[in-house]
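Figure caption, in words: inputs first, then the predicted bound structure.
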Amino acid sequence: MNWFVKTFSGSIGRKLLMALTGLFLCTFLVIHLIGNLQLLKTDGGEAFNHYAKFMTSNPLIKTVSYLLYTSILAHAVFALLLTIANRKARPQGYTVVNNQSSWSSRNMGILGTIVLAFIVFHMKDFWAEYHFEDLPMYTLQDGTVVKDLYLEVMNAFKSGIYVALYVVCMGAIGFHLWHGFESGFQTLGLNHKKYTPFIKTTGKVFSVAISIAFAIIPLTVYFFRQ
Ligand code: HEM
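Bound structure (protoporphyrin IX containing FE present):
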């Protein structure tokens, strides 16, 4: 236990934890996206409500959810601790901007803060509503009666301001991943002449694809499903 505390209380250990939690959150995004794409089906909510029921009742997924919440918190807290430590080490801040670094890499703090604010706002809306509020019910084809989360999402995306906010936040997530994906692999030491260019390209493609695919959902609901 002692080695664990020692490893993860130092700045290298904290960076390592940020990389591990960050890459785990990337995996979550892919699964969440696949589930959310069910919202685009014109089946009255059957596929999406089925998916929501599975995600909230399967014991294995419920356990992984706790790992997800812990990862979000740990990623944000370690980011804050590292930023404070870096500021202390360089009290005057940066006076020279490294032209080689991308805009994303220089703004990870603000981008991460926007993403965290989005997650809090987003979970308050959909997650908390689904778990703690009385919602209209939906009967699945197999006869199970579930809360109609599909209807909740459709109603939320009726608002143009809400949709615009979502699209802006998806942009922030894209920029955060633009630097974060490759940085995570670099921290894990996966730096190799042959594989690094591949990881970098995958990171760029991943960040653009994820943000566009998520943004398409509220936009499609707003323009084509009302
Ligand atoms: C169009 C975009 C999105 C839609 C329509 C959407 C929809 C939903 C819905 C309906 C839920 C509640 C049901 C559930 O737990 O699966 C949920 C939960 C959640 N969403 Fe999203 N989401 C979107 C994007 C995102 C993004 C980009 C993130 C992260 C940056 C995110 C993070 C979360 C988290 C952490 C939860 C709680 C998951 C859990 O309890 O297991 N969502 N989302």
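The pocket of protoporphyrin IX containing FE is lined by residues 32, 36, 52, 55, 65, 68, 115, 119, 122-123, 126-127, 130, 149, 153, 166, 173, 214, 217-218 (CB under 6 Å).
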